[in-house]
Design goal:
By secondary structure, the chain is an all-alpha fold. The chain is about 80% helix and about 0% strand. The protein has 7 helices and no strands. The longest helix has 30 residues, at about 90-120.
């Protein structure tokens, strides 16, 4: 009796490490563009509120939270539109961190622009001296705004994700 060996294709039975990595990367969408959408929404809302604040006095923390909610809405709505599903937990965490990093980079750019283009030498010296004499109020306000942006981004992403989650189709 002769033995017959079965002819198995490697591609169908065994995945190489590169193929499995490529399939895993294809399953997880790139979130960089959605962080960009988050940034666009944040910038638009911030610009609108800056124009409104020239006429009415508004609470700056409220403006920050509403701007973050707007950015979260735009990012999640684009994600749901493109992928026909809601964000999962890891995607939401990555989008939260990416969005907060973008918000803080934009804030740093904004403050540097104010520092160099609006403040004169005397105003800079006064602010530096005040900061050196009492650094605790500045540090505590920086920590509080960091916590505010992080918490508001996470809650708004979660809420908008739940609100825009596509309904399952009944067949």
């Amino acid at each position: 009796m002769s033995r017959k060996t079965t002819h198995l294709s490697k591609s169908s039975t065994h995945l190489s490490a590169n193929e499995s990595t490529n399939r895993l990367e294809a399953a997880q969408p790139k979130l960089a563009q959605y962080v960009g959408f988050f940034a666009i929404g944040y910038i638009l809302a911030s610009a609108i509120f800056m124009m409104i604040q020239s006429k009415f006095a508004l609470n700056s923390q409220l403006v920050t939270v509403i701007s973050i909610i707007t950015g979260a809405f735009i990012a999640v709505s684009k994600f749901v539109k493109h992928h026909q599903r809601a964000l999962d937990r890891s995607e939401m965490n990555r989008l939260t961190i990416g969005g907060i990093v973008v918000v803080w980079l934009l804030t740093i750019i904004y403050f540097l622009a104010i520092w160099f283009w609006i403040f004169d030498t005397i105003s800079r010296e006064v602010l530096l001296e005040m900061t050196m004499q009492q650094p605790l109020p500045l540090l505590s306000s920086l920590v509080m705004i960091l916590v505010l942006t992080l918490v508001s981004a996470r809650i708004s992403l979660w809420g908008v994700n739940r609100l825009l989650e596509p309904k399952p189709k009944n067949i």
